[in-house]
Amino acid sequence: MKKSNLFVLLLVLSGIFLLILLKLFGIILNSSQSFSKRTLTVEGKRGDVLDSRGKLIATSLLSYDIYFYGKGLKKDEFNSLLSETVNFLKENRQYEKGMKQKITNAYNNRRSILLVKGILSLELYEKFMSELEKKYKKIRDIKGKFYYNKKYTRYYPFRDLYGQVVGFVNKEHHAICGIERGENGTLRGTAGKYIDNHLHLRGGTWGRTKWLNEPENGQDIKLTLNTVLQDFCYEALKKGVEKFRAKRGTVVLMETSTGKIRAWTGYPSFNPNIYSKYGYERFKNMSLEDIFEPGSILKPIIIGFLLSSKYHDNSVLSPHDVFYCENGKYLLKKGNKKRIIRDVEKNRYLNVKKVLVHSSNIGMAKIMQKYYKKGNLKDLYVFLLGILNLKRSIGVPLPNYTNGRILNYKKWNEIFSLASIGMGYEISAPLINFLLAFNTIPSKGKLLKPQILAGKKVQYFNDNVFPKKTISFLQTALRDVVIEGTGKKVNSKYIAIAGKTGTAKKYDPQTKKYSTDKYLASFIGYFPADDPKYTMGVFIDEPGKKYYGGEVAGSIFKEIAERIYFYELNKKLIKVAVKDE
Amino acid sequence: MKDKYNFSPYLFMLLLYGLLAVFSSSAVYSFDQMGSPYSMVVKQLSAFIIGGILFYFFKALFKRSNPQGVFLLLAYLFGIASIITLLIVALRGVNYNNAGRWMRIGPMVFQPSELFKLTAIFLLIVSFNKEGSISLDKKTLLPLITIMVGLVFIIAQPDFSTMALIGFVLISILLISKFPLKKTFVIIFIVLLGFIVIIATSKYRMNRFKAHFDHAKGLEYSSKYQSIQSRKAIHDGGLFGRGLGKSKRKIFYLPQAWSDYILAIILEESGVIGLGLLLFLYIMILSRIFRIAWDTKKIKEKLFVYGVFILFLYEIILNMGVVTDLFPSTGLPLPLVSAGGSSALVFLIMLGMVSGLGERL
Q1: Residue A457 belongs to what domain range?
Q2: Are A270 and A129 within one domain?
């Protein structure tokens, strides 16, 4: 038996035991566990979205939530306070069933509870508090038992009028679509950060907060959109889509000479205040996020290109050329492949202008054949890339812009592809791109950048697309479309409209064929025809009842144009009257 | 029995304390898993009752008969029982907690390595000669080989911590005996070398080992999870605790809160005060065991009581070290407090024997 060894062993063990005890107290007193340090962010107030005349399209409303935190109250104090509070809530119609029990539970669990959510008259609250204070003068800390939380709620006063274009911000303050998303950086401002230090000890919590940087409010945004015009377009579109039982539709109204978009609407739209009721598909901007094959509305642009002396000499196509239109049915053949091209109107001989006016597919096919013999395919390809902005963004601050598509000219099938392009197929782009391209005709050859934010300079992609001669030819042709051609129904008694109809069969990716019952009916035009002020595109997707562009989209176009005419006429009269006084 | 040797009242209080702790830490889990909040504590209570009977049986045995002969008999009996049960576990162990350490006997789950703790002490004690040293001859070869075989079985289970604990206990007995110090250090050196090899070659142990020293890695391996929860529980408990039954960590945060980490729950619920009471009970029992050992004259009996003392003390210290995150996480229970029938049975048997030896003084 070695006693010294035993004592050494015991000494070592007591040392270890002491270490354990030290560690134990270390853990108990460890400040990192009782000291909480958090970095929190606070969003600034989001900027408003205004229309061109300063009306609020989207705004952030400040609202207050009132909480109750009953820690430290004695039971009898709490009970009398509870009945007062419940009375107050009932008087102000803020009382919900079971709230009394919830408040009691929160008190028992030493938690705070939300009493009033959202906006409440501050006067009423002040009255309530002063009455409470009178009754409970002895309880000093009663004021601290109620506290406020400040928050912003995004609100859209025009509800579904601006739908897809303005978009919305969800409850978590994330911008989801539209201008809200596209201009989020400007609207949002910068978030503030603060450090929240707290020391939790038995008997209480001590703490302070320190701002790293304070939140900065976002900036307001003024749009070029005009609520009156937007309303005209939305009403007419809604009526039209419902009348023709279409899937959906969109209208874009643009100032001809500046590219400022004055109205941009889609139907069916959605109410951004209750966004969660809709599916994601509803938030899509049809004229920007989807791409379509345009159909006949492309014809004037192609003709313009072929006539222009700017791109090639007059031998390619001259306005006096006449084409035989085969009485409405034409068999296109190359090798084994066959394709029948039909016209709606049966015609024999048509000159170039009449081909446009009657929107003859056969005429276009023959014109394209002639071009193939004389011209250079690459020229057409480059021209289309440019004028339809196929490979670039159009610069609108809206998300999810989809680039258009066209097959490279080297892969074109000389006969069939060219005929298709002539008729507005085998080429696709967002609908607004066709409006911009079409606008080169009324704006005398300028390919404008569309503007949706107010106060910006007019910008061009290209300021001389067509020579003057071509433009005047196209303008008379487009006026004739309305007077005697496919757009007869658009002809108005009050205002001179010029434009082009389009009825495009939709390509069905499932069957890999062009659908026989799904169409895109469209009408693009400008008014007044002699001195264009507005260029407008009306596009109706899958109309169910009738499908000709002139009839479906044209009637909507006409209604909007007439309403705008009368509205502006009234304004002029009022101005004149004011001057006279 | 003289009062200074009698630890039975403290032992009884410790058992009550343990039952309370097991009940508090396991009730929610038992209710959730087995439908009754009492199922775990009833198991523990039945182990205590059987253990109590065995306690008095061995107490009487050691009081009346000649301990030298009993040592030899029990060494053979426990030796055979241990080797057989360890063999059975090795062949078809009930896989529980990813360690094949358990075997089923009727309604009970038995852990042979717990029995082997006692067996190993016996086997070492019978190897000593009258001078209190060990000389290798025909008599001592069999017990020493049996110890080796048992340890190999335990390490194969794999249960490194129990093996290490037994190793430490045996070496400590050698240290305080008259076994030559030089040889003892050679053995210590060899054993330490063996430990290092065993830890380094096993990925699981290496991870636990790394986890102890590397906080971030520990989270990755998730073996640190228990110790983090344990620290939080201890911190929340503070000086006075949350109050009995009010632990938050036991409700599915700290897994198996009633076994190895039961001390964390005790600290969370009753704070340092509760720990003080527990330590008081332990110290009273240990000091009385030490007294018995000190006053015992015959060398084998003396070393046996020291052995029990050392085993008891080591398990307490190791468990506390793990709970306070001082040592890497192991699988050692807190003696007579953690839920676990085998451990409780073996400790009660050992204490019964010590108590019997105390009666002789």
Answers
A1: 227-297+307-317+388-397+423-576
A2: no
In a domain, A159, yes or no: yes
- Asked if residue A478 and residue A554 are part of one domain, the reply reads yes
Cα–Cα distance, A35 to B300 (Å, whole number): 55
Which of A172, A206, A222 terminates a domain? The answer is: A222
A2: contact with B, CB 8 A cutoff: yes
Count of structural domains within chain A: 2
Q: Could you report how far apart the first and last alpha carbons of chain A are, in Å? A: 127
> Which among B175, B232, B237 is the nearest to A5, CB-wise?
B175
Q: Tokens standing for A350?
A: 């048509």
A:34-93 residues touching chain B, CB 8 A cutoff? 34
pLDDT tens track of chain B, all 361 residues?
678 889 999 999 999 999 999 998 888 888 877 778 888 899 899 999 999 999 999 999 988 888 778 888 998 899 999 999 888 887 765 555 544 667 777 667 788 888 999 999 999 998 888 887 888 788 888 888 899 889 888 887 777 888 889 999 999 999 998 888 888 889 889 888 988 888 787 777 777 666 666 554 444 445 566 777 788 888 888 888 888 887 777 776 777 788 888 999 999 899 899 999 999 999 999 999 999 999 988 888 899 999 999 999 999 999 999 888 888 877 789 999 999 888 999 999 999 999 999 988 8
A4 touches chain B (CB under 8 A): no
Residue A146 distance to chain B (closest CA, Å): 29
Nearest chain B CA: its distance from A153 CA (Å): 38
Is residue A515 included in any domain, yes or no? yes
**Nearest neighbour of B317 by CB, restricted to A17, A28, A33:** A17
Same domain flag for A231 and A273: yes
- Across the interface, whether the CB atoms of B177 and A202 are under 8 A apart is answered no
Considering the domain boundaries, does residue A479 fall inside one? Answer: yes
Domain that includes residue B304, residue range: 3-359
The interface residues of chain A toward chain B in range 172-211, judged by CB-CB distance below 8 A, are 202
Domain boundary among A179, A203, A222: A222
- B151 to chain A, minimum CA–CA distance in Å? 23
Give the minimum alpha-carbon distance from A289 to chain B in angstroms, rounded to a whole number: 44
Rounded CA separation A471/A467 (Å): 6
Question: In total, how many domains does chain B have?
Answer: 1
Residues A486 and A536 placed together within one structural domain of the fold = yes
Q: Best residue in A20, A34, A201 to probe B by mutation, most B CBs within 10 Å?
A: A20
Indicate the helix (H) or strand (E) that contains A116.
strand A112-116
Q: Are residues A213 and A75 in the same domain?
A: yes
The reply to whether omega before A509 is within 30° of 0 (cis) is: no
Residues paired with A460 in a beta bridge: A448
Residue A11, CA distances (Å) to A2, A517, B278, B294 in order: 15, 96, 21, 17
Task: Please tell me whether residues A218 and A231 are part of one structural domain.
Answer: no
- Both A168 and A82 in a single domain? yes
Give the CATH number for residue A140.
Answer: 3.90.1310.10
A192 and A84 in a single domain? The answer is: yes
Pairwise CB contact (< 8 Å): A33 & B232: yes
For residues B211, B212, B213, B218, the Cα torsion angle rounded to the nearest 10 degrees is 30
Residues contacting residue B189 through CB under 8 Å, at least 6 positions apart: none
* Residue B112 structure tokens: 């042979």
- ipTM, two decimals: 0.88
B192-200 contact pairs (CB < 8 A, 24+): B195/B164, B198/B155, B198/B160, B199/B160
Helices (H), A400-467: 416-422, 431-438
3-state secondary structure of A281: helix
- Domain contains A18: no
A27 touches chain B (CB under 8 A): yes
- Domain of A547: which CATH number? 3.40.710.10
